[in-house]
Design brief:
It is built from one helix and nine strands; from the N terminus they run αβββββββββ. The protein binds copper (II) ion (CU). Copper (II) ion binds next to loops. The site of copper (II) ion has 6 residues, from loops.
């Protein structure tokens, strides 16, 4: 009996060690999707649908016009995230002007990482990475 208990203990310890090794220091948080590189476009579109912005993260050139389209069945808004970079101009749209079928456009004039969110659905957020065009 003692031997069995010892063996069971070894197996458990071995299993735990193996599990720990597999999940080494990686937190169990779903990583945000990688940004979609949309450089080279003068204008792009981001859909608000199913309580998500799609694509949620994009890379665009300075001067790109970004249009958010509400293709969902409920109203959303688009607002600067609380700790986000200054967008350099009046940014965002209220839910009263961003219901189903409505859209909102903003042209990014300066490089930077701009974070925005829907204040109605707090898990609904996105990022626009604006990069300076390389000199031709
Ligand atoms: Cu929303």
């Amino acid at each position: 009996m003692r031997t069995r208990a010892f063996l069971a203990g070894v197996l458990v310890v071995g299993f735990l060690a193996g599990t720990a090794a597999c999940s080494s220091s990686k937190p169990k948080v779903t990583p945000p999707p990688p940004p979609i590189d949309l450089r080279g476009h003068k204008a792009i579109e981001i859909d608000a649908d199913l309580n998500q912005f799609t694509p949620a993260a994009v890379i665009v050139d300075v001067g790109t016009k970004v249009t958010w389209r509400n293709t969902d069945s409920v109203a959303h808004d688009v607002k600067k995230a609380a700790d986000a970079l200054d967008f350099g101009a009046q940014f965002g749209v209220d839910a009263s002007r961003f219901g189903p079928g409505q859209s909102y456009s903003f042209t990014f004039a300066k490089a930077g990482n701009y974070f925005y969110t829907c204040t109605i659905h707090t898990l609904m957020s996105g990022k626009v990475a604006v990069v300076a065009k390389p000199k031709a």
